[in-house]
Structure formats: structure tokens, C-alpha cells
Hints:
By secondary structure, this protein is mainly α. Helices cover about 80% and strands about 0% of the residues.
Amino acid sequence: MAIQSADTLARIKLNFPLTFSFVGAIGLFGLTAWFAYDTRSVKDTLIFFLAGGAAVGQLTASIYTARMLAATLAIRGDDINLRARAYAMQFGARFNDPAFFRVRDAIREVLNHQGSHETVMQLCDEHQTDIINMFNFLEELATAFEEKMVDPVLTRRQFSGVVTGTWAKAWPWIQCHRIRRGQPDLWEDLERLYDGWKRKL
């Protein structure tokens, strides 16, 4: 039975810096030989060799630690990206949930409506609860997008049409609803998301 370790360190491929160690050892021996020849002192040469060995060992350990840190950060970055994609897919699953059908039907009716602003506002008022639920859902999505909690490419691929189409179509009703509720900043994250996606269309 194969088990995937959940520990980040267990997934790191640790490569000890052998090349640097080899080169450092050769350099240390060469310098030690030169120092011994120059000083003719066994005691001083031994001290020099030990000090040099400690320095090479410290540098080798620093390189090893830096590699391990870089590998850990790379894995954590991959984990964050995977979680962001999974969270984006959760929004898609919630939107397509059968229990959400009334909201989807209401939004579809608004999007397909060909009448004036007044008739669109009347239609939104008739489906007010479902319309509010939809905009609350999209506001949650927009907040997650703004906080970089969801994968931006996957999220836009799933919801670009819904966000830009619904917001543009229902904009007159949104303005009136904000005034009626006394909340001029209602669904402000969604509005910023709409503005950003609209510019990229």
C-alpha cells in the first residue's frame, strides 16, 4: 500500500552540494600546503587547517540550507496554487448545484430580457430574493478573487460571462437597490471585479 506523506519536508529532494564540498576541500588542502610551506610550523598549520575546514563546512551548510529553503518555498507555492484552483472549482460546483436552480433561472431570465431599463428593474424586483442571493454569491467570489484566494484564470473562465453580463444588465436595478437599502457600497468587490474583467473583454 502506497501512502503519500502530508509532510512538506518528505517531498523535498535534498541534493547535498558535493561539487562545492569537493572544490572547497581541494582548495583547503592547497592553501594548507602553501601555509605549511610558508610558516614551517606544524601547530600553526594545524590551526589554519581546522579554521579553514570550519569555514568550508559553514559555507557548505549555508548552501545546503538555502537549497532546502528554496525547495520548501517552491512546494508551498505549488500547494497554494492547487488550493486556489480547488477553491475556484468549489465556486463552480456551488453555482451548478441543483439547489441553486431558482437563482440561475432568475439570472438567465434577466440576461435574456430584451426590454427597457424599466422592465428589467421590474423583472429584478419580481425575482428580488433570487437576484440578491446571486449577487451575494458573486460578491463572495469577487472578495475571494481580490484576496487571491482563488485561481484567477480558472475563476474568470467559469464566471466571466455571468459577472459581466449580469452586472451590466442589472445595473439600473443595482443603483436603485443601493439607494433603497442605504448602502452605496453594496457589492463593491463585485463591481471592481466587473470593471476589471470588462476592460479585458
